[in-house]
Amino acid sequence: MGCIVTVLLQNFINSKKCKKN
């Protein structure tokens, strides 16, 4: 849910956190 971000950069960083979670 929170992993999806409109910002590409933020999305990339979020993607890593999402995978870890």
From TrEMBL:
<protein>
    <submittedName>
        <fullName>Uncharacterized protein</fullName>
    </submittedName>
</protein>
